[in-house]
Structure prediction request, 520 residues.
Amino acid sequence: MSQNFDVYIPVVLLMGFAIIIIIGALIVGRFIRPHHPTELKQTAYECGELPVGSAWSFFNVRFYVVGLIFIIFDVESALMFPVVTVFKELNSIGKGGIVLVEILIFLAVLVSGVAYCWRKGDLDWVKSFQNTVGNKIKK
Amino acid sequence: MNETIVTYLKQFEFVSRGYAGLSPHMATLVSVIIFGIFAFVIVNVCAIIGGLGTYAERKISADMQMRIGPNRVGPYGILQFLADGVKMIMKEDTVPRDCDRFLFFIAPFFCLVGVFATLAVLPFSNGFILTDLNIGVFYLLGVASMVGMGVFLGGYSSNSKWSMLGGMRGASQIISYEIPVTISILSIVLLTGSLSLRDMANAQTGFPTGWYIFHNPFTFIGFFIFFIGILAETNRAPFDLPEAESELVSGYNTEYSGMRFAFFALAEYVEVFVVCSLASVLFLGGFKVPFDIGGNTIIGQLLQVGTFFGKAFLLYYVVIWVRWTLPRLRVDQLMTVCWKYLTPIALFNLVGCAFWMYFFDGKSILTLLLQTGAAAAGGHH
Prediction:
């Protein structure tokens, strides 16, 4: 039983090392680095200008739909990992066809979803110009 | 089968004899100490590789632009990264007044923890692998995506417009390119039938003829998709939009100074090494030595480690070379490349690999050609 958890010890150790390195370097640095904060030094850098407003404002992040597609694909790949892992074993005993069909059905659903998004223009960075002012003037 | 560096050491007489006399709790403690020593060595080696990566980057770029590059500190300036480290630690640690202090402080942790955790499953040789998890490559993808989170948090928490834009770009880019990378990996998992990175390397041979990149046409294309994908995942040029220095000052790490900035840089350079070695394990035979010279002895293992690092460094060189060859993409081009080209091709590759496995029983294209050649020659006689 303990053998099962033994293999994860290095993972914890490595993560611990990473945290120790950061904290250690910051603490060591505390004693040798200067500390003279001024008002201007602590403002956000905007190429020498005083910053106007906060950066936490609303702006069009554009990839909202891409984010949704990503989640679907990520879940899909998480579900695909076990399927493709057993494929070779099942193929060697002559049952690869079932897995193959399953992969195909799974991917077909996904591909049709992506094709729909593509057709709809959600994968374009610049959305279609049909309703913009400039286009109406051109017409 | 889960195997670790401890199980490898146990095959030597004196280690297993030492273990036999210990109580279960003491045995676990000794294992932790052994793990600790090897993890310490690997972390240090990889941190030095990351440091030398910054040196190599500057020196190679200097070569390509007919400059000299760093040449003052140590022979050929090779100790430049140590001087940089000392400089960084002595720099004032400025924190923007309006930032989200908590998120600002923990963002570098996400980057460095994510990168260092991936080192646990890298198979440096058949025996010298910290822990050969049976979910190896899946685990690696999982912890590596913590880096993306660190990039986004760093950009968001700074409350600077440059950082915000860089972080947003980083998030969109890293999640988008994860799809083609993952699907390319899936086709290799399909061929191996295992998620463990050591099994993947062991399924290949020491000669290029047995590498997965030359296994069939689909894996050949898959390698290039994977390589383009990892360039984007690690924010390397031509996909360095999150830190595009000519548009966004320094991108997501604009507001970071001193040691905090150094950790972002360290995480980035170590991650490049990790993904390069991942590419070599998945497609280029990893640690496999021709004829398996040395086998399981110490000399054999050292040869394997050398092969592993050699391949990884070669790919590292290509990554730097690409950076100084290609101009940066635009954001819309970046998204088009990922979603309209790489992802459909990667999906097609996966299906192609599955059919290849089904019809040709997992034989490589070379084996098939030799078989048909032999059959044709036999038919003549």
Chain B touches chain A through 93 residues (CB under 8 Å).
